[in-house]
Amino acid sequence: MPLGRTQASALLLSALALAGAPTAARSATGTDASAPSSVVREEVGNRVSENIPAIPADLLERLNRYQNTRGASASGWTRDGCLLLGTRFSETSQVHRVCEPMGMREQLTFYPEPVPGALAAPATSGRDGFVFSKDVGGDEFSQLHWFDLQSREVSLLTDGKRSQNRGAVFSDDGRQLAYSSTSRNGKDTDIWVRDMQAGTARAVVTEGGSWFPMDFSPDGKRLLVSRYVSIAESHPGEVDLASGELTLFPVDGDRAAFGGFAYAPDGESVYYVSDEPLQGQAQEFLTLRHHDPRSGRLEVLSADIPWDVSEFTLSEDGRHLAFVTNEDGIGKLHVLALPSQRPVALPDLPVGLAYGLSFSADGQKLALSINGATSPSDAYVIDLAARSLTRWTRSEVGGLDPERFVAPRLVHFPTFDQVDGQPRMIPAFYYRPADVPAGKKLPVVVQIHGGPESQARPTFSPTTQFLVNALGVAVLVPNVRGSAGYGKSYLALDNAARREDSVRDIGALLDWVGTHPELDASRVGVYGGSYGGYMVLASLMHYPERIRAGVDIVGISHFGTFLKNTEDYRRHLRRAEYGDETDPEMARIFEEISPLNGASKITSPLFVAQGKNDPRVPWTEAEQIVQAVRGNGQPVWYLLFDDEGHGFRKKTNSDYFTAATVLFWQQHLLDE
Fold this sequence. Notes:
Blueprint: E1 41-44, E2 47-50, H1 57-64, E3 72-77, E4 83-88, E5 93-98, E6 106-107, E7 118-120, E8 129-134, E9 143-148, E10 154-156, E11 165-170, E12 176-181, E13 190-195, E14 200-205, E15 210-216, E16 222-230, E17 233-240, E18 246-248, E19 258-263, E20 270-274, E21 287-292, E22 297-300, E23 308-314, E24 320-327, E25 330-337, E26 342-343, E27 353-359, E28 365-372, E29 375-383, E30 388-391, E31 409-419, E32 422-431, E33 442-448, H2 462-469, E34 474-478, H3 488-491, H4 499-514, E35 519-529, H5 531-542, E36 549-553, H6 559-565, H7 568-578, H8 584-593, E37 606-611, H9 619-630, E38 637-641, H10 651-668
Parallel strand pairs: 33-34, 33-35, 35-36, 36-37, 37-38
Antiparallel strand pairs: 1-2, 2-38, 3-4, 4-5, 5-6, 7-8, 8-9, 9-10, 11-12, 12-13, 13-14, 15-16, 16-17, 17-18, 19-20, 20-21, 21-22, 23-24, 24-25, 25-26, 27-28, 28-29, 29-30, 31-32, 32-34
Helix pairs in contact: 4-5, 6-7
């Protein structure tokens, strides 16, 4: 599935440097002669680094415990009542199983590449196992596999070629598996259905565009589907699997966002999430709704909650529905009894993000993951009848004292434009070091999320905790205009020609920093990945005198070249957000706002990090900005991993990246 509005982009976390002596040096492009003579480069395994000094041993030791934290996320129940987990015990995250609260975690998959999650077969299906996906080197051409828990054998379910396969959904009887795939032409995302007994698969939707399966009808004869256009527009429908007939549902106002879509137990009415207009009135937020086509009755089940619904799930017995709302970045859990839709009393939950909901086979227990600013993700189980909460995992925090971790404070700062005659206020999370001596001014790191339709939320980050606790750095994490979670009007404020308005929000944050005596406005650094990397480069371009240094991870340096070189299946999705580079007027705007063309204005120290296999933001975006900024005489730090994609998922790589980043801050922000 595409990322929903309230899903946050994953933070790039890390820790220890990789051991081993450097081998012969080469440039990131593979041609030594093309690089300036001042560039110092080395190659160690799959890592290429340029101008990055050796990481001091004492820094590695200080980082060690912070970067040996880990979390565990629940992925669903197995037939025998165990929980599947995603967690890391070595180099990459793999699928584990735990069968009782605080029980032993049994590792089930063992791959050099990460396994991001698992989909368990329905307990009533008689199948005992789960589906998982993995790619190679971060290229995101993920293939689906079946893991049989009885035989422990793994079977490839998809073509095994250069195709992306994701969004798997089981029928209730486990005989059919629907998923989306680019295997037909590499450009469009079709919907396929696999017969799990016969071992055959067929395409059931080949309409062009990006289609995703949502839910099988209880009898397995129909499939809810959705065509994703952008975060603000989807088009749901239903496929008759026997005839192949696709029927699109009418959308009030012709254009709306849709989230989850699922059949009610009766097999006719549906539950879904949307911001579709109600009685002709536009809606700002994604609400949970129930629609019965037989009576035409529409009910809004979260009408009294002025925030987005981020996810929901139904129990297999059809007696309960659970959903999560994203309330100013905090996840709030709700459970309804069906068919009355009466709220169910719940135990108190830890404050944080609640996600990954799944009911046990009997519908009496609800598993979920909770991640907080001061604690990594862990799996919890709610007994609905007893109204009790049981923690099933307790993830490690590197032997550190979690009481010393800092929780952020939600702040708001005024920006350049107005709403109803008052300055527009931009939300941000402010991590402030504890026990700051009177009169001491804190250096600041501004972390800018990607997406751009993502949302920074108060999740656990060992890197942030290290900056705050070990280095005494204040960390500000803003949700500039265009961020999800604050309504669709806010979401659209940076679209197309208004792209740089979000950069102006960073300028307003710099103004806010200057009004707070405890913050050192002369020592501000910016950090961000993907679209956040573009924001870093653009901020350095527009505010070179106010930003001391910047770290750009897998960032966009020119929207025109980015759209030209991104993978084919992503291009139409990104045009919906950024604009069409083939339109002359939009191409002109791209030329004006792209950091590559303003590289001469970037005079602050810059660190650029990239994965060679990135299908989203090609590595050429990093190469060209590095070379352009070096043209200013700046000794840009550059890091390239040959075995990574859009971010760093292997522990050794992310450890080195974080150590290098901290060293960069020490030298260029902290004056150490």
